[in-house]
Amino acid sequence: MRIAADDIWSAAQAAAASGDFAELHAVQGGLLWVAFDPQQARCALFFWRDDEVRELTPPGFSVRSRVYEYGGGACCATDRGAAFVNEADQQIYLVEGATRTGDSAGAPCALTARPASRYGDLSFVSAWQAFLAVEESHEPNGVIHRLVRIGLDGRRQLLVEGADFYAGPVVSEDGHQLAWIEWDRPYQPWIATRLCLREGDEPRRVLAGADNEQSLQQPRFAGDGRLWVLSDCHGWWQPTCANQSSLRAADAYDAPYDHAPAPWQLGGFSYLPLESSAMLLSRFEQGSGVLLDVDGLGRERRLAPDFSRFRALAVDAGHYYCIAGAPNRLPAVLAIARDSGAVRILAGGEEPLPAQHLSRPQPFSCRVGEDERSQGFFYAPAGQVEKPPLVVFLHGGPTSACYPVFDPRIPFWTLRGYAVLDLNYRGSSGYGRAYRLRLAGEWGCIEVADVQAAVADLAAGGLIDPARVFVRGASAGGYTALCALAFTRAFRGGASLYGVSDPLALRQMTHKFEADYLDWLIGDPLRDAPRYRARTPLLHADRITTPVIFFQGGQDAVVLPAQTEAMVAALRARNIAVDYHLYPEERHGFRQAANLAHALEQEWLFYRRLLASPA
């Protein structure tokens, strides 16, 4: 008897499994982290010590920064407890006693009261007995970003201002040196940034990046006082010592791999300098994450080999800690013994499906153009299906990436007889600077060509049925999906989840962090107006001949509902089959489990109806 896929892995189960962790901090023999619960659509703060986990955020609080809209760095540990940024008002709160042995956590107490400001990239400087943070102030003359110091009594001190953006502020152990990353418009942080240093009251010095030809991120002071940073000046984000006369990757860490993803969010920890010139680091090898500790002589030891993505690294005397993903597990908080390398799962890490129902990611690469290749991961359908239909997943960003970890949506499709291609088209991060910058001026063209080439490659190998291919994406991925539907004939249908259908409308409404991104991706809206017209799906709705399903958040401030609804109306005017689902309480990126489940099931039903009808 054949078991129905819904009995194995339903849309509701997939939505419930979309929880995640963020932001680990090792403190006083314990560990602080943030966990997202899709059932509550809320991020809560937890503290672990001696196998006991307790929540520090009472109902009504959610830990999430909105600096640069994408946030990050929303919590940290202090000598008196734990601090976090509350999602609702974007202010910093302190939970006294949260991390001290024998103390019970108090109620969150607000440290800041600046309604026009948001905070992120939060850290606590013991030498100062104060917080260091990126402040985003919404003022009458625009949005201003600064680095600020916040005392435990709530007193605010301005530290650095003048650049358009800041990230990664860090202070030396003695409190005398302050380092940070800054950049100005029109650049994005994965294109061109500067590493700056200020010693005491001396003027700031630019240590690297003054020529706007490299991207730097995650400055770190080592115990010996040396300043490290990730620089892509040699083609990859590599740990680099900034105290040398010429900035270069240290010989022990110059492996030709990216050691971090694109910094869409603040607060990233993808490497850590250790004692005696050793290093804990993660990197991407052919898109798959690897965790290593490297001694001062450059000898590498691979850690947690059963996992394939590593984030939020932390360390104490006995353990390394990280948030890890694996192809067969939900996200997990790991403790790894520094001496033996033994791995222990502290939270998460459940295996939601038995091996016989789980499709494993297969590295995918295909030739595009004359001498380039596009990357990604292919998932065959669970069970034997000859030439199955294919769903192409396109990530957002577009300078982001997909990873070979358990994505609860993918088994929903593979258990229903579909193959899935999770595509890291040219322009994705994790494959070096040149690959990442391939989208410059080419958005709407080269990634569409990559989708076409990937489908043709899979079809030529007999792995899919080219007559039953669907393309879907969210945000920037939705834009590429709509371009693929408008400018190719390779698809039976598609889905756009809060996708961009009018780039110029997006440019006029978007926030400061991305205000110039469209100019880099497509071109100047006046000088390159023909290019915009040629790549705007809304202006070419007459070229879309296949059905499309749309999903949109009613409170989306990035892709406004009106933009999606204009696309829906243009297709309906031509009698193209269209489904449209609006979720009034959602923003740019759905968070509520019920809505996640509904969208997934409706997309599958939409494709199923298309496959049941004549092509």
Question: Describe it for me?
Answer:
There is one protein chain. The chain is an alpha+beta fold. Among the domains are: 270-351, Thrombin, subunit H (Beta Barrel), CATH 2.40.10; 355-612, Alpha/Beta hydrolase fold, catalytic domain (Rossmann fold, 3-Layer(aba) Sandwich). Helices cover 16% and strands 35% of the residues. The chain is built from eleven helices and 36 strands. The strands form eight sheets. The protein has an eight-stranded mixed beta sheet, sandwiched between helices. Strands 1-2-3-4 form a four-stranded antiparallel beta sheet, with no helix packed on it. The chain has a four-stranded antiparallel beta sheet with strand order 5-6-7-8, with no helix packed on it. It is globular, with a radius of gyration of 24 Å. The two termini are 31 Å apart.
How are the SSEs ordered, and which strands pair?
Elements: H1 5-8, H2 11-16, E1 20-27, E2 30-37, E3 42-49, E4 52-55, E5 75-77, E6 81-85, E7 92-96, E8 109-110, E9 117-125, E10 130-139, E11 142-151, E12 156-160, E13 165-171, E14 177-183, E15 194-199, E16 205-208, E17 216-221, E18 227-231, E19 238-241, E20 248-249, E21 271-273, E22 279-285, E23 288-294, E24 300-303, E25 309-315, E26 319-326, E27 329-337, E28 343-348, E29 362-368, E30 372-379, E31 390-394, H3 409-414, E32 419-424, H4 433-436, H5 446-460, E33 469-474, H6 476-487, E34 493-497, H7 503-509, H8 517-521, H9 529-534, E35 548-553, H10 561-572, E36 578-583, H11 593-612
Parallel strand pairs: 31-32, 31-33, 33-34, 34-35, 35-36
Antiparallel strand pairs: 1-2, 2-3, 3-4, 5-6, 6-7, 7-8, 9-10, 10-11, 11-12, 13-14, 14-15, 15-16, 17-18, 18-19, 19-20, 21-22, 22-23, 23-24, 25-26, 26-27, 27-28, 29-30, 30-32
Helix pairs in contact: 5-6
